[in-house]
TrEMBL record:
Pfam families: EXPB1_D1. It comes from Mixia osmundae (strain CBS 9802 / IAM 14324 / JCM 22182 / KY 12970). It comes from the Eukaryota. Keywords: Signal. This is Expansin-like EG45 domain-containing protein. The keyword Signal applies. Residues 58-200 form the Expansin-like EG45 domain. Residues 1-17 form the signal peptide. CDD domains: DPBB_GH45_endoglucanase (cd22278). The keyword Signal applies.
């Protein structure tokens, strides 16, 4: 497959689909919206950040709730949710500062790859981006990439943090079958696709939030470098979202393994 990169201010996954194209899009300010590639994964508890009924918290996309009015889900562990597939994505691909990013509401099919480099097609699931993978003290290596040459703890260019408490038991068992490093995949294959609203419901947002068609937000002039943890110029790096730095996704071990 030939890889193309275009410098654009705005492009929608829908317009790409209409053209039958899968393009990696280099966005204004250095952000990268990947159409396909390889990544690593960790897990996080969405209910620690935002309550399912919308009564508390929000994500970097402004996600206010992930359940209908009055609904309560068991969210006390992996695979004990309603069967929704949500994920956060690393800084370079998120696409905004201090608010919702370009990736909010986009959906990616994620396919695990075994240690023997076998693509586990039967374990593919489609996840909707609802958050920025947090750039905190122990998260730089997985979540804080500013340059394409900076890889995650597992040597991948991109990273997904999976909201496992929103998954049901079958989804969780399918996605994690054969996993060998805690609860994390060292390598997955991903592709930008249309969302499946049966498992990727369009989440409600705060007034400042965004679930689809998010605009670029280049408010800050620096990004936190994944290697050094220091701010670097946007002339050589992407921007940095200052929200949600406190949620910790252990690198490379998932926070659920602590």
């Amino acid at each position: 497959m030939i890889s193309h990169t275009f410098v654009l201010l705005a492009v929608t996954s829908g317009s790409l689909a209409q053209l039958g194209l899968k393009l990696d899009t280099q966005l204004d300010g250095g952000w990268m919206m990947p159409s396909s590639g390889y990544a690593s994964t960790t897990q996080f508890v969405l209910n620690d950040e935002i309550k399912a009924d919308g009564s508390y918290g929000s994500t970097a996309c402004g996600m206010a709730g992930w359940a209908g009015p009055g609904q309560k889900f068991h969210t006390d562990g992996p695979g004990k949710g309603p069967g929704f597939l949500y994920a956060a994505i690393n800084q370079r691909a998120f696409g905004a500062v201090n608010g919702p990013g370009w990736a909010c509401g986009k959906c990616y099919t994620i396919t695990p790859i075994s240690d023997a480099d076998e693509v586990l097609c039967d374990q593919s699931l489609t996840f909707e981006i609802c958050d920025l993978c947090p750039v905190g003290t122990q998260n730089f290596k997985n979540c804080g990439q500013c340059r394409g040459s900076t890889n995650t703890a597992f040597g991948q260019e991109f990273h997904f943090d999976i909201a496992t408490d929103a998954m049901n038991a079958e989804q969780y068992a399918t996605f994690t079958k054969g996993i060998t490093y805690g609860s994390n995949w060292k390598k997955v294959q991903f592709e930008l696709v249309d969302c499946d609203r049966s498992v990727n419901p369009l989440f409600t947002t705060r007034s400042w939030g965004c679930a689809s068609g998010c605009k670029l937000n280049n408010a800050l002039d620096a990004c936190t470098d994944a290697t050094t943890g220091k701010l670097v110029s946007t002339e050589v790096a992407d921007h940095y979202s200052g929200l949600h730095k406190k949620r910790m996704t252990m690198s490379p071990v998932s926070s659920l393994d602590k």
